[in-house]
């Protein structure tokens, strides 16, 4: 994208930003994240359908913050993550320049976090029909079969934590999984440890996940962990009527409404 | 072998349900003995992982109980807990961890009789569901490995 490259180059040239976080050519036909610090390198920037990594994950990394003010290439999933990070006070206006890219691969002018929110209000998160069907199919199984299904699905997990590393919202510097007093999560990658890890991961993303699928894309064993977060997105929307990030409300689980409704507490 | 006696773990808040359970006793109301009560400062403090740990350690059922909405000693712990349980219940449901095995309730310090009823009905319900082996089997993985 010529426009993207030019914009990035001019931002670096004018020293408005010191680093551009974008997509570059990876091995064979893959793309990967690149960190550009000079205008001359901007021709390396590419953007196409292969650019699925969520670059927002780098915004909270100390090593990247050290490089100076970033500009970030941001298709919709990245924009959603940026908005959620802002809602969680991890990013402020003026901390970064957003090089927004529309689904039609056109540059979008987004000069503030509010502008991102306004733009995203027209691009609401919608769970794809194939995932809805998959979730319904799981929920239709008898309870023991459902459990057996997940124990089997999680069997290949060897606790590499790529799902955590890829997620822009898993930015805690000390994760519960590394906490061993008490040992919340069994460390070995046996069924119990796998189950505990994925329950904890899903719960800690409840009401925060922006459905970017970075966790699933990063999983070397293609475990459908995104079905858990998608199912929870549906639950948030069904119970609390909210979908996706917003600068104007607190996270689902760090806020409450005295009139919250449920049907199971006696 | 006698009749199946469910093992129930109750996570209760200090200010309402724990005092309510105390009242059940001082009122000499008899209720099922299957419950082991764990006292917490507040339902807001009850981490969802604790519930999983109970199932892992062989609990057949769980009770989570605290102050009625608007009655929290810490003003909003139970409001937060309510949202957490709504979300957790949905997650357990898709995972196939039987949500019927966890009874949530609001029991105030004045509701000794309600506490007895909650325990009794939970014990009856869990007795009907039978022992909970799905999760404990998974949790027993390490022991099995060690015994091979």
Notes on the protein architecture:
The complex is a heterodimer of chains A (266) and B (148). Chain A is α/β, with parallel strands linked by helices and 266 residues long. Chain A folds into two domains: 119 residues, no CATH class; 126 residues, no CATH class. Chain A has ten helices and five strands. In chain A, strands 2-1-3-4-5 form a five-stranded mixed β-sheet. Chain A is globular, with a radius of gyration of 20 Å. Chain B has one domain: Rossmann fold. Chain B has 148 residues and is α/β, with parallel strands linked by helices. The longest helix of chain B is centred in the middle third of the chain and has 19 residues. In chain B, helix 1 crosses helix 4. Helices cover 47% and strands 16% of the residues of chain B. At the A-B interface, helix 5, helix 6, helix 8 and helix 10 of A face helix 2, helix 3, strand 4, helix 5 and helix 6 of B.
């Amino acid at each position: 994208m010529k426009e993207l490259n030019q914009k990035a180059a001019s931002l670096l040239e004018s020293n408005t930003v010191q680093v551009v976080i974008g997509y570059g050519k990876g091995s064979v036909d893959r793309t990967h994240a690149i960190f550009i610090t000079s205008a001359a390198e901007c021709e390396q920037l590419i953007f196409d359908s292969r650019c699925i990594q969520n670059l927002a994950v780098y915004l909270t990394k100390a090593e990247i913050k050290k490089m100076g003010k970033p500009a970030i290439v941001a298709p919709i999933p990245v924009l959603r993550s940026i908005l959620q990070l802002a809602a969680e006070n991890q990013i402020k206006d003026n901390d970064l320049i957003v090089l927004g890219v529309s689904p039609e691969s056109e540059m979008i002018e987004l000069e503030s976090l509010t502008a991102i929110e306004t733009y995203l209000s027209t691009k609401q998160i919608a769970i794809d029909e194939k995932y809805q069907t998959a979730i319904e199919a799981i929920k239709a199984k008898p309870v023991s079969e459902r459990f057996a299904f997940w124990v089997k699905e999680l069997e290949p997990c060897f606790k590499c934590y790529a799902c955590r590393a890829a997620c822009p919202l898993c930015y805690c510097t000390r994760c519960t999984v590394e906490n061993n007093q008490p040992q919340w999560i069994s460390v070995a990658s046996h069924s119990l440890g796998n189950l505990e890890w994925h329950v904890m991961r899903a719960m800690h993303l409840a009401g925060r996940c922006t459905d970017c699928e970075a966790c699933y894309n990063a999983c070397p064993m293609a475990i459908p962990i995104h079905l858990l977060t998608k199912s929870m997105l549906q639950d948030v929307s069904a119970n609390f009527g909210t979908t996706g990030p917003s600068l104007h409300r607190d996270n689902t689980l760090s806020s409450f409404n005295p009139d919250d409704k449920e049907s199971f507490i006696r | 072998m006698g009749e199946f006696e469910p093992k129930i773990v109750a996570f209760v808040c200090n200010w309402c349900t724990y005092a309510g359970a105390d009242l059940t006793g001082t009122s000499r109301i008899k209720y099922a003995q299957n419950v082991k009560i764990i006292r917490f400062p507040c339902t807001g403090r009850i981490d969802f992982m604790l519930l999983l740990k109970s199932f892992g350690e062989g609990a057949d059922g769980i009770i989570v109980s605290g102050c009625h909405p608007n009655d929290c000693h810490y003003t909003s712990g139970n409001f937060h807990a309510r949202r957490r349980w709504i979300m957790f219940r949905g997650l357990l449901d898709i995972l196939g961890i039987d949500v019927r095995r966890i009874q949530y309730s609001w029991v105030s310090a004045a509701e000794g009789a309600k506490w007895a009823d909650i325990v009794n009905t939970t014990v009856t319900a869990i007795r009907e569901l039978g022992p909970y082996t799905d999760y404990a089997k998974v949790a027993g993985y390490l022991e099995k490995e060690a015994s091979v």
